[in-house]
Amino acid sequence: MIILGISGAVGHDASAAILVDGKLIAAAEEERFIRDKHAKNLFPIEAAKYCLKQAGVRPDQVDVVAFPYAEIPLSSPARWHYAMRHWYAPDRALDAIFNGNRRFRRNKHKALDLMKELGLNNARFMPVEHHLAHASSAYHLSGFKEKTAIVGIDGKGEYATTFFGYGENGVIHKIKEFYDPDSLGGLYGAITEYLGFEMLDGEFKVMGMAPYGDPKKYDLWPLIDFNGQDFRVNTKLANVVGLRRYKKNGKGYYFSQKLVDWLGPKRDGDEIDHPYIHYAASVQELLEVVALKLIDYYVGDIIKETGRIAMAGGVALNVKLNQRIIAMPGVKELFVQPASGDAGTALGAATYIAAQFGDTVEPMKHAYLGPAYTSGECIAACEAHPSKPKWQKIEDASIKGAELLAAGNPLAWFQGRMEFGPRSLGCRSILGDPSHPGVADRINAQIKYRERWRPFCPSMLDRAAADILGTDHPAPYMTFTFDVAEHWKARIPEVVHEDGTARAQVVTMDTNPRYYRLIEELEKRRGIPVVLNTSLNRRGEPMICSPTDALNMFFGSDLEYLIMEDVLVSKV
User: What is the pTM of this model?
Assistant: First the structure.
């Protein structure tokens, strides 16, 4: 069976993914093709075209288009909960009761239009509940054979914000859902806005800021009412709609004027300053405490039984929370879908439908699911580029890359298939030698143009990971932080965060041989089996997709070296 998953109904992170007989062939975000970060209010026309091409599938051969957004019946508690909790905004409340699927209908029409444009004339349109798609993207691709606890924590889908359940014999079972406005992801997003970042984009920044603050300095618990098994967000302060929203310069925010009266003015600018770092630390701690207790309450018995957890949803990208989940009693392994945000729901909807039709969904082996380009295509891009790049063919990209890194140079590294999800994993990366003092600051100031306090990540050889991280827990996707061993902190200071942790990627030869060899060659020269890795893009832009994108980024920054496949581009 051929299943194409498409996402975009939630207004951001449109994407597409394709499965053929249960095997994941391709997946990509629309933003990468159109160069518009998060592809807001768009559907994945270019990403879907790519997936079909990569799979070698004609549009008329697609059996199902899976869509991660579904109708929610009036009999569901979701719409009634929403109406009750939004009674202060009666238009929203009454809409939920009397016209509660208007957004689904609107997006269904968009999806059907996309199907028509692509020529998917024989495909059946099949919607999947948003949080079931998140759950499937984690469970069905985890490879776990035992009964598996499933956790989904998000902003919101149709109405649900949080999902607890389990998977067994390929079937997903719900245990508990929470509904909007009671959303941990939404609450974290509201504080993200208050701290001066963009919601759905700046949550990583709050997480990076948190270690610089003291979570005990300010008590943010008035934001939530939590008794260990249920929670309600204080909608006088956060997760607000309508007239309760704080407004500034014509923009309405997801928090209220009362929150500003309580905590002080909304933060503006990029400087770390007081008291905002402490607010970041406090909201991070609040998230961790509530999430851990909910996980233990709803799926703790399953964890104790088999030790396996599969997790997705936007909050699953909170790597500090994930580190604490791994440390929970009984946890043997946590699989976090690398595309845990809403882009991953295209993948989840497709896998959910595949499982329903009896396909055996193959485990996810890597996240290199986007397009690749030949050296010839890279050369053609160089020759066509208006900057007239100076380029040369090289015999061994891994050796040449290691030489440049060992000399202290940052390096743009463009190889193989583009990653799916928000993390660069060695195919669309900016690299540095983490043993060279100051290389992180140089990349931040001259290339990434991002806040100086945001950490960089280490990619490390699998044979060295246990010694550096003190654990052999799988970590292929940069979805966890780990405490860096003391005897390594001084050796790789550029990838150790303020709190002594690192968001690590463990690299294996079988999934990315050229990147593995690059790190091996760097180790020969510097004695360090680790490379600093950050995404190949500038601040505010999507990750690079094509050679032309890479060249545009290269000449729009202070980078001096770019290796695209077997082509070296330099400015020196």
Answer: 0.97
